[in-house]
Amino acid sequence: MDTNVFNAYSQYYDLLYKDKNYFDETEYVNALIQEYCTETTHILELGCGTGIHAIELAKRGYTIHGIDISETMLKLAIEKQLQCDPEVSEKLSFQKSDIKTFESHQKFETIISLFHVISYMTTNEDLNQTFKTVKDHLKPNGVFIFDCWHGPGVLSDPPSERTKKFENEIVSIQRNSKPNHISENNTVDVNFDIFIKNKQSNESIVLHELHSMRYLFLDEVTTIANSNGLALTHAEEWLTKKALSQNSWNACYVCKLKK
Fold first, then answer.
1. How do 187-198 and 92-96 pair as beta strands?
2. Which tops the pLDDT comparison, 201 or 90?
């Protein structure tokens, strides 16, 4: 994964995803935590981005440590933290680290990885290293909750070229995406051309980015979890809670430490 992609992207990340319903997503994740690990007080978030999920979870009483590989993403997360009420802010901490190599003496009841961060792990080595991070930092009976691209859904409804436009009082953004499906690797290279115009100065810049994403199948997740001391406990369609099907693009998995 190219960290420079996210350092450039982070400047406009929250605007690009301003319509993303972080509140409902947090409610969904919170319900899974309460179902599968009710004793959760401390959460580790792998790939915390600009910190919105973490803040929403802290508002629900959890103490959460977020890690991300992008310094500029983390800068935005910390800026948000400083704007929170003190009782929320004190429950948050952020750290620059790679989710594949993160090390801490602390263990957590729940580890989460949201918004397809796991799909950025495009090789088996990347996935195994990430799942090892999870195993090494989960308490007994702890759970790992993550979402990713679901293989059958991607194959039945392949990604297509798209254009999205966004703006606020300062900038207007047009993002064109062009996917390249590499079926032998179960990956999709998403090429982004992002046109950004400062509405106050009329200055414009263009960002060109490549996001390589891997889609996963149920049996793959089961195998990777098992080989790293975890057991797949539950799988469902992200947010809808429906059973996974060939029409499901986004999967949610819950894994537990093997006893």
1. unpaired
2. 90
227 φ, ψ (degrees, to nearest 5): -70, -10
Sort strands 187-198 and 171-182 into parallel, antiparallel or unpaired: antiparallel
Whole-number pLDDT of residue 5: 47
Q: What is the pLDDT of residues 21-66, one digit of tens each?
A: 999 999 999 999 999 999 999 999 999 999 999 999 999 999 999 9
Q: What is the tally of helices (H) and strands (E) in the chain? A: 8, 11
Q: How far is CA 126 from the centre of its chain?
A: 15
Neighbours of 61 (CB within 10 A): 12
- Report all structural domains of the chain as residue ranges with CATH numbers, in order of start: 3-150+217-257 (3.40.50.150), 154-213 (2.20.130.10)
Between β-strands 250-257 and 162-167, what pairing exists: parallel, antiparallel or unpaired? unpaired
Instruction: Examine the pLDDT at 9 and tell me if it is beyond 70.
Output: no
Work out the burial of residue 34: count CB atoms within 10 Å of its CB; fewer than 13 is exposed, 13-18 middle, 19 or more buried.
exposed
Task: Calculate mean pLDDT across residues 55-82.
Answer: 95
Per-residue confidence (pLDDT) for residue 100, from 0 to 100: 98
Q: How far apart are CA 17 and CA 15, in angstroms?
A: 5
What's the rounded Cα separation, in Å, for the pair 93 and 87? 13
Do 115 and 147 form a contact (C-beta atoms < 8 A)?
Answer: yes
